[in-house]
Amino acid sequence: MTDDRSGRRNSPAATVHFDDVRKWYPTTGEPVHAVDGVTLDMNAGEFISIVGPSGCGKSTLMLMLAGLIAPTAGTITVGSTQVDGPYTDLGIVFQDPVLLDWLDVLGNVMLQAKMRGLNVAESRKRAVELLDLVGLEGFERRRPYELSGGMKQRVSICRALLHSPPLLLMDEPFGALDALTRDQLNLDLLELWGRNESLVLFVTHSITEAVYLSDRVLVMSARPGRVERIIDIDLPRPRPLSIRETPEFGAYANEIRSIFGRLGILKGDVVSESLNEMGAG
Amino acid sequence: MEIASEESIESHATDGDGPDFAKERPRWQTVSIDALYPLTAFVLAIGGWAAFVHFGKVKSYLLPSPQSVFTTMIEQRLFLWEQTQVTLAEIVYGFVIAVVVGIFMAILISASPLIEKSVYPLLVASQVIPKVALAPLFLIWLGFGIASKIVIVILISFFPIVVNGVIGLQSLEQEKVYLAQSMGASKWSTFWRIRFPQSLPSLFGGIKLASIFAVVGAVVGEFIGAEAGLGRTLLQAQVRLNSQLLYATIGYLTIVGISIYVVVDIVERLAIPWHISKRKGAVGL
Are B228 and B82 in contact (CB under 8 A)? Predict the structure, then answer.
């Protein structure tokens, strides 16, 4: 994949390959299969969401890709590198913003540069740019305790993007935010991603969020955690928030919902035939 | 009215100032008003003491009046200040060494699983030995001078520093560890940039406790045997049934204790302002 849009990439574009990846945790009885035989390819510059119920191994999958926990079986490769041990050519955003209380906003973003030993002056310039992009100009000297939940998560995203990583991992980053802030951050994220063109792996509970953001959505089931279906989201970009009200969007959301219905994860009147375009998740 | 209040909310929101309610009143004003409560309670307690002695016709060797204690504190100030300097030196030397040794041990224990498994349990178990019981030993080894008191102060005050330090250093959230690993951070930079600063609030909790223990240690050390100091003065006053001097000495010891605590508190405020503010915010909201 070429690099014509961003021009600031400093690492080659990342592709990810999962080959029959399994993870189980030993318990006193049967071992718990958190992830059971996942094989898939992710292309450079793609935005991929993983959606599924709690305990389906979404986060486990992500942490294994980052090399932060080891798979029980199978291999993960990024580009031509097999992941064994922490993989560092990436950025991570967790559900908790994980900011350091003793550093101000700029200091928290700059942690990425300090830990990696990047050029301080250049990184600082980029940090200020990123903070401006997410509407945090003038907040550089604030401490985390002075920020709202949404602001903190924006700082966390800027930190993850500071070094323009070819791979961005996001583990339910907006799960703890209110609906309005979440919408705003969805917009901000697509804006940032458009400039950066990383491969994004985005873990979420929200079907709407997954469809809205992604090129492809991995639908996972729980116990054992496996990929049920991969759905290509063929919606034009840039996507306004209102795209969520279109019939095409509703159809994608319903498709995912009906998979959960069939799996028994959603019970009751899941998808009504007459109303097939209600895009609320 | 309604328009005005809406406007103020609006401006707050666009400023994005965050929770800034404390700013509405200058900080020194809040502090001085807050200080009035304990001050009033203190004055009332002293007043009650004076009234009890006066109207209850209490013998002065049992409980002297606050006025006579205060007078003794003034009249004996040269003698008592000399004793204070001795005790203060014991406390400060012992406490500072305890802080340095305590932090060093906490880092060692949290960094090395081997030391944690082998030394830490012994350290915890050793705490059942009443340190006061060891004091005579140090007198034999180190004599009646300041050295034996310093060792007793160190022994009695370093433990809370180690325990709280270890707890602070080991209570790093999994996500922060993941974050550092994903940045390719070395153990060393993870320690200095994340683990150590994160442990400071807990560590300072231990240091504050230790500052109080240090005063106890010095006084107890002097009880066992000393050439000078406020603890020794207490014993002498007791032997002579000089209650005024006894209480005056307790007064000086109280001032010493409070001063040390205040100094530690100021250092804490300078070292971890981010934690103090967070704590304040939590209380304010």
Answer: yes
